[in-house]
Every structure is written in C-alpha cells, then in structure tokens.
Specification:
The chain is α/β, with parallel strands linked by helices. The protein has helices at about 10-20, 30-40, 55-65, 80-95, 115-120, 130-140, 155-160, 165-170, 195-200, 230-240, 255-265, 280-290, 325-330, 350-360, 380-390, 395, 410-439; strands spanning about 45, 75, 105, 125-130, 150-155, 180-185, 205-210, 220-225, 245-250, 270-275, 295-300, 315, 340-345, 365-370, 375. The longest helix is centred in the last third of the chain and has 29 residues, at about 410-439. The termini are far apart.
Length: about 450
C-alpha cells in the first residue's frame, strides 16, 4: 500500500523517515508547496506555528540534495539558536534513514567557534544556523556557500524585527546567481518587500490559515487585574494552577526579570529565558525544560514561536502582547500532542479593544478570578458590565421633552388672581346697576 507522501516522488529514505515518525497525511501547506519547491521555484509560505511548514521545506530540500557533490548546497536560517536547533533536530530525523549520505551541520553562536571551523573543513550538504554566525563564518572564508542553490529564511518577520535581515542579505549575495529562496513567515511586513524583490522571481505565495485561531483543547481565560500588582497576581495564578509545566510570558526583558524574581521570592521552581541570557545559560534552561526538571519558565516572545517542548499544560500572560499575533504563538505552546491546556491572560481596562480583536478571530474567552486560592467564574458579571458600557437604543432614539419648570405656588396664585378679577367685575356690574336705578 502506497504512502500518501509517495505521490511527491520523494527519495525512498525520506518516506522511511516519515513512516518511522508516524506521519501519514500531508498538511495543506505541504500539499501546496512541496511540488513547487521540488521544481526549483521561489516560494513564500505564510502560516502560523503548527501548520506543518517545517516539513514543507525540509522534505523537498533534502530530496534535491546531490549526494555525490561534497559542498554546501542548501542553507537554512532561523532567528534564534533555539529555533535553529529545533530545525536541525527535525532535519536529523529525516537524514538518519539516509545511510549518512546527506550531511548537515548546525552553525549557531554560543558554541566553540574554532571547533566549528574545524568541522566545516569537511563541508556538509546542508547548513542550519543563525544569520549572524553564518555570515561571520562566510566572511572569514570558514564556510563556503558559493555553490549553495537553496536558501531558507524561516520566521522572516521575526528576522526583520530582530535586525537579522541584513546578515541574511550578505550571506545570500555570496550564493549562486540562480538562488532558490524559500521564505516562511507568519506575516509579510511591508519593510520585508525590498529584500524579497531583490532575490525572488515570481514566487509562489501560499497563505494557510489555521482552521482555528488556536487548538480546540485550549481554554482561554481572562483575569482582570483590578489594580493589583500583576507580578504578585501571576504568582497567585501559578500557585492556584500548580501545573505540570507552565510558561509565563511578558513583553519585555525587564518584566521577565521582575516576574522571575517574584516567583523566586515565592519559593517556586522557576527559570527565565530572554534575549539577554547568555547562550550557555539558554542551553541549560532548554535542557531543563525538555527533561521536565523545572515547573515554571518566565520568558519573552523569544520562545513564543517554534519552540516545541512537550508537557506544557498552562500559559500565563502577565500582559497581552503588543503585537496581537503573538497571542496565538504564545498559547500554541500548550495543548500539544493530545494534551489539554489553559491560557490565562491578565487584562486591564485598556485591553478591551485587543480582547475584542482576538474574539473576532474565533477565540472564546471566559472571565475568571482568584478568591481564597480558588478559581471563580466571573463570566456573567463581566458580560453585564460590558453591555452596560454600550449605549442602549432607547438612549439614542427616544427623547422625551423636558417639562417646563414651574415656580412654587404658581397655581394657587393664579387661582387667587382669577377670583379677585371676578370680584372686581361683580363690583363694577353692581355700580352700573345702581346708576341705572337712580335715573
């Protein structure tokens, strides 16, 4: 019986690796891009985490490698060491069934540079790494990419945000003239367009929307801060959850450090991860996570994309991300591989518009709070409050005229005046009658 991926005419060892991993059906982005990549076309794959984009480029890329030629034929770039490591691990799963005929090397910062240079003297077919270290080695002629015909730019929008596009550009300029570029990103910002136009020729642009904004098994909670200190509130939430493993997200390095300290002061088993952490310490933290040796990780959005650590049962957002698309990336770390998950986000009065935008994407929130270390449901109360803040139809369409103000005692005074006028008229009438009689 034929395997579903065989219709792409991939090399037999690639199919063997998919069978070994239990991967049977291609996902939408794989269906739409694998044939184009195999045919040598430039492609732009626009999709969120969890849509299968990694295999969409790894499978056809490996298939196109000429095993007989001993030079670098493909370069895969990622914005962080952790993402590069993860891509390399996925690539290794495919190559282990190829009898070591296709070779690959990981090239990232934070490792022994001289040892890396020694390893690269025997050029691999595929290089996976971060743009800065790749460009550094290319400039020093320690890495020869002149024969490379395929360049993958993964998480391109994050590359742009972190200032790495220039490094990618410099490395790409040293590759073959007919370079095939494969760009994958959740968004395609306008500032990325000049780079794309420089290297890509009529690229096939495929945009794949997830069937849901987040996996079905995630519960989305909103916790109003009610003017409480969010660091202390996040500690309360962590204790109330008592999770298997929770990732606590903050928007800045400074907030990560502050929340991490609050967790330490509360005696919780916690580590932290952001761009300011040294490569050596980052590697130690990632190993602890994968080995389930820590209960809480406080992190910036550095780990929101692509990092796949099994067993994350809870996400705590100390604040809503400034870029709302990161909400989906953050919560996507939980409810994986059949697990359930809870994503709890602390919100304040200013977050209402952001919440409504996320709701418009199909995310359904419930309002919760902590009382006496237990979770309570605020849903009905919060809905009423939101409705009360909206103008009602009767407020804007029906306007009753205001009654004129009446001075106190007005009616009594008017009645007296009328009575006096009647008496006056009677007196005049009496005088008139008397005159007539006297005549």
């Amino acid at each position: 019986m034929k395997h579903n991926f065989e219709r792409f005419e991939l090399k037999p060892f690639i199919i063997e690796s998919l069978v070994a991993q239990g991967i049977e059906l291609p996902m939408e982005i794989q269906e739409r891009l694998i044939p184009s990549i195999k045919n040598g076309s430039d492609v732009i794959g626009q999709s969120q985490t969890g849509t299968g984009k990694t295999l969409a480029f790894l499978l056809p890329l490996v298939d196109r490698i000429n095993e007989e030629k001993r030079n670098v034929q493909a370069v895969i770039t990622a914005p962080t060491r952790e993402l590069a490591q993860q891509l390399f691990d996925e690539l290794a799963k495919i190559l282990e069934h190829g009898e070591n005929k296709v070779t690959a090397k990981l090239v990232v910062g934070g490792t022994d540079r001289q040892r890396m240079v020694e390893k690269l003297k025997n050029p691999p077919h595929i290089v996976v790494g971060t743009p800065g270290r790749i460009n550094d080695l290319v400039k020093d002629n320690a890495l020869d990419v002149h024969h490379a015909s395929i360049l993958v730019v993964d998480e391109a929008d994050q590359m742009l945000d972190m200032g790495f596009i220039e490094d990618v550009d410099q490395a790409a300029s040293r590759m073959r003239d007919n370079l095939q570029m494969l760009v994958f990103s959740a968004t395609i910002p306008e500032k990325l367009q000049p780079f794309l136009r420089k290297y890509m020729s009529n690229p096939k642009h495929v945009k794949v929307e997830p069937k849901q904004a987040s996996p079905k098994k995630i519960q989305h909670w909103l916790i109003p801060d009610r003017d409480r200190d969010v660091k202390e509130l996040s500690v309360e939430m962590a204790k109330a959850f008592n999770p298997y493993l929770a990732v606590v997200f903050a928007n800045s390095k400074e907030m990560v450090d502050d929340v991490y300290q609050a967790f330490l002061d509360a005696g919780l088993d916690v580590e932290k991860l952001h761009g300011g952490i040294s490569p050596r310490d980052r590697k130690k933290v990632m190993k602890k996570l994968k080995d389930a040796e820590v209960q809480y990780l406080v992190a910036s959005d550095l780990v929101a994309r692509g990092i796949d650590v099994k067993g994350i049962s809870h996400i705590i957002n100390v604040e809503i991300p400034k870029e709302l698309e990161y909400y989906v990336h953050r919560v996507g770390r939980t409810a994986r591989a059949g697990w359930d998950g809870i994503a709890a986000t602390i919100v304040n009065r200013k977050d209402q518009q952001s919440v409504e935008k996320l709701e418009s994407q199909g995310i359904s929130f419930v309002y919760k709070d902590i009382k006496n270390d237990e979770w309570v449901d605020l849903e009905q109360k919060m809905r009423r409050r939101r409705l009360q803040n909206q103008p009602q139809e009767s407020d804007v369409t029906i306007k009753k005229p205001k009654p004129k103000k009446v001075k106190p005692g007005y009616k009594k005074k008017a009645k007296m005046q009328m009575e006096q006028e009647r008496k006056r008229q009677r007196r005049l009438e009496t005088k008139r009658n008397n005159r007539m009689k006297n005549k």
